Amino acid sequence: MEHPKPESRNHERPWWQTGVIYQIYPRSFFDANGDGIGDLDGIRRKLDHCSETLGVDALWLSPFYPSPQKDFGYDVADYTAVHSDYGTLEDFDRLLDEAHERGLKVILDFVPNHTSDEHEWFQESRSSKESDKRDWYIWKDPVEGLDGEPGPPNNWLSNFGGSAWAWDEDTGQYYLHLYLPGQPDLNWRNSEVQEA
Questions:
Q1: pLDDT tens digits, residue range 78-136?
Q2: pTM of the predicted model, to two decimals?
Q3: Domain segments of the chain as ranges
Q4: Three-state SS for 10?
Q5: Scanning 56, 93, 105, 115, which has the fewest C-beta atoms within 10 Å of its C-beta?
Q6: 120-195 domain in CATH 3.90.400.10?
Q7: Helix (H, G, I), strand (E, B) or coil at 137
Q8: Averaged pLDDT for residues 2-12
Q9: Are 124 and 193 spatial neighbours (Cβ–Cβ below 8 Å)?
């Protein structure tokens, strides 16, 4: 028995619903300068391969921002620059221009949940309870545990195991990290964080 195909209500679907998106981890994709680490220029040199041989419509680039690399770049130390292992902002501009010349879209993997503990915002936040950026992250006082000793404010667990709270000796509070302790969570209830 033959079943008729349902008619589509939207014949013109957005590119991201119908296109082929190819994820690239810059560190291991292609090394253009011979230092053993993939880079933005390496991606640029392989654009024809991506567009013509693979026939993709868009490239999804994993994080290439400055980072201590505790979580493969997902611990961003600066959202406005390129990690020196991967090149420069000029290299990114050239990659973007040449991708667009080939009709390729470029999607950047943006990490809004947290920063690196090396990010200047967190460094300022942890410098003092009176810091202007203290509320940019989630800080809590310790609570008395079952053993009578001070401990984390609750029993939340990190996605990577262990407590989701890390102790900051200097200010006597815990900060929230749903991933690694080196990835403190931003406080998105703070309007200044939303604006930044």
A1: 999 999 999 999 999 999 999 999 999 999 999 999 999 999 999 999 999 999 999 99
A2: 0.84
A3: 17-108, 120-195
A4: coil
A5: 93
A6: yes
A7: strand
A8: 57
A9: no
DSSP code at position 170: T
93, containing H or E segment: helix 89-101
- Looking at this protein, which amino acid is placed at residue 72? F
Q: Is 99 helix (H, G, I), strand (E, B) or coil?
A: helix
- What kind and span of H or E run contains 18? helix 15-18
Judge whether 126 and 170 are in contact, CB under 8 Å.
yes
Instruction: Give the CA count within 13 Å in the CB-facing half-sphere of 67.
Output: 22
CATH code 3.40.50.2300 for 17-108:
no
Take residue 145 and report the two structure tokens written for it.
């545990």
d(CA 29, CA 26) in angstroms, rounded, equals 5
**Per-residue pLDDT tens over the stretch 129-173:** 999 999 999 999 999 888 888 899 999 999 999 999 999 999 999
